[in-house]
UniProtKB/TrEMBL annotation, chain A:
It comes from the Bacteria. This is Lactate utilization protein B/C. It holds the Pfam family LUD_dom. Transmembrane segments: none annotated. Residues 62-190 form the LUD domain. The lineage of its organism: Bacteria, Pseudomonadati, Bacteroidota, Sphingobacteriia, Sphingobacteriales. InterPro entries: FTHF_cligase-like_sf, LUD_dom, NagB/RpiA_transferase-like.
Automatic annotation (TrEMBL), chain B:
This is Lactate utilization protein. Residues 297-327 form the 4Fe-4S ferredoxin-type domain. Keywords: 4Fe-4S, Electron transport, Iron, Iron-sulfur, Metal-binding, Repeat, Transport. GO terms for molecular function: 4 iron, 4 sulfur cluster binding. The keyword Metal-binding applies. The lineage of its organism: Bacteria, Pseudomonadati, Bacteroidota, Sphingobacteriia, Sphingobacteriales. InterPro entries: 4Fe4S_Fe-S-bd, FTHF_cligase-like_sf, Helical_ferredxn, LUD_dom, LutB/LldF, LutB_C, NagB/RpiA_transferase-like.
Amino acid sequence: MSSREKILATCTANKPALVDLPQLSDEHLTHYDDKIAQFKLILEGIGGKVVALENIEQVKEEIAIHKQSGEFVVDTVFNTDDALKAQTSFDLERVDRAYLQATLGVAENGSVWLYEAQMGNRLLPFICQHLFIVLDKATLVDNMYQAYQKLQVQETGFGVFIAGPSKTADIEQSLVIGAHGARSLTVYLV
Amino acid sequence: MSNLKTLDHAAAAEIFIKDEARTDWHDDTLWFVRQKRDKAVHGIAEWEQLREWASEIKNHTLSNLDNYLIAFEKQAEANGIKIHWAADALEHNQLMHKILKDNNISRIVKSKSMLTEECHLNDYLKKQGIEVVDTDLGERIVQLRDEAPSHIVLPAIHLKKQDVSETFHEHLHTEEGNNDPQYLTEAARQHLRDHFIQSELAITGVNFAIAETGGFVVCTNEGNADMGAHTAKIHVACMGIEKIIPKTEHLGVFLRLLARSATGQPITTYSSHFQKPRSGQEMHIIIVDNGRTKQLGRADFRNSLKCIRCAACFNTCPVYRRSGGHSYHTAVAGPIGSILNPNLDMKANADLPFASTLCGSCSNVCPVKIDIHEQLWKWRQVIVEEGYVKPEKKIAMKGMAWLFSNPKVYRWAGKSGRWFLRTMPFLGNNKLNVWYKQREMPEAPKQSFHDWYQQNKNK
């Protein structure tokens, strides 16, 4: 018998009688009167920055300024660049700033969801030095239950919730921002 | 692996607590994490509802585990992921070795996976001449020191920054005596970036595997799993069979519980959902049993398979906090490890269920409602019945059982004990009395409760 067959057969023999799945529902969960304020409170509490913008043109201008000053800026908010997909870790390691659009934000924990298509390259949000996310404030949901109701996780090869910059407290519980991934996260609420 | 064990928990803990200041520091540090957990939990009005759902989802999943594993395999394969099955630790390691050999791989990065620790993968590969670089900062620190993690979420929690500074000075040539965590973390960032960028194969764990979609989720704060998995041309994820959950929507419950229970964060920085390999990449999953199906068949201990490895039970445990993770001599230490490990090897881990006060704090903080302290107590009974306790303990327990079932003798013994402790305290306060170790003997009362009750019951 293969290990697969052996494991499955033992599971079948040893599992208890079938127990029902609980019915999840949103009505038991906390809803926020001001989702924007809650999102900002939580994300800033875990090391992220939240900036409310009048219009998205301000991001465009910021990108132009940093590009001009010679920084390596990757922007998939305004530009879709197919070449990005083929870039390797050797190329992307030099990225100073990455600008990406998120699908939604979660007020309860300050996270944003990104589909692979919004990253351009799976490695980008992690390997860049500084990460900037553009988020439509109308997409904010209260909690993770609502988030999964809206997302189609299986439709994409890869997706991620990001909540703040890369961090660690592995040395004597001292919080250090910038372990391996982005050293900062800024969310632009538009 | 029983042959690795040299000391039992009590003997190892005795060495740990010799350094009183360090023991106090370890205790305080973990209690600080426990307090962060409380703060995060009290901010969620529906916390008990979430725990209840999580517990019920896991109960359901275990009651249908075979079918969910089959469904997961089918979906994952349809997504282009290669599935392997390992009955035990050795087979897991052999499968990994085969993937490495077949692809002629030499540069390997690994993000934290307690399953690969359980299987002793690094040691196995080292014997084949293959080096794996651990990339979680805490894991890298203990790896450089040739130690095992002492905690499943905070692998280097037993070390002070001076220890890390010395280790990095030796291996990464950082400035001698520079103990600044920011400086040390930056040094590790640069050192590990080189490994990430050149890696050919990345090993990760699996926090949750979703039967409905064939995808899986990996949670980290550092982003090291992603740095490895999205760089390397091959990604191998190792999962225990109990990591399965039925549907994506159930992640909404578990992701809310996991980080809050572990470190008091609202969610880990990165909750990565892997569904398909990227173009040109190979993705493998090794599904591991290693005693889990056996535990599924033990009705009293089955609940332990619900564990999501948050370590809340470690941080709250008064024994763990004051004895250190290494004294448990197993990959998963603490209260949950003390339930899981006797299943793997009852003889080698017979000491672990006794490393508990049975205070119940572990069960109270468990996000999936595992009856941890009750299982510890049940293991004690099984272990005594199977004869895996030391002869002196066995004799003492038998003696106590006899004493407690003879009220007259019990009262006489109590009376003489109190008299001796009052008049000749040195008889109790000496090294021959194991109860006196690391403990002050109590002041003996003049009267027993029984005598007091007899005198007062009719008043």
